[in-house]
Known about the structure:
The protein is mainly α. It has one domain (2-90). Helix content is 68%, strand content 0%. Helix 1 (2-28) runs antiparallel to helix 4 (72-90). The mean pLDDT is 88.
Amino acid sequence: MKIVKWLGFLGLLGGLLLAGFQGIAMIMGQGDEGFYTHTLVTLFGEENFTWVQSFPVAALRSGIEFVVQSPIYGVMTCVGILLLIIHGLFVKG
């Protein structure tokens, strides 16, 4: 179970660091450059997520679309928190 704890810490730390660095990049940017958020779709391409449309349940499809369209720092932070909660619930002793 130690691996779940460390993966949770890494996900949480990675998400927060990524958000921090994107914020610093926005502050130091020139002109009209704004806060550009990276999503799974922008990182891997739209063509790699066509499989999402094949889900028959609309609620499941919209949930997956929400996750892949969310900023990557938010996804990493939420996964880290979820893993830490799982570790807290199932730790022995």
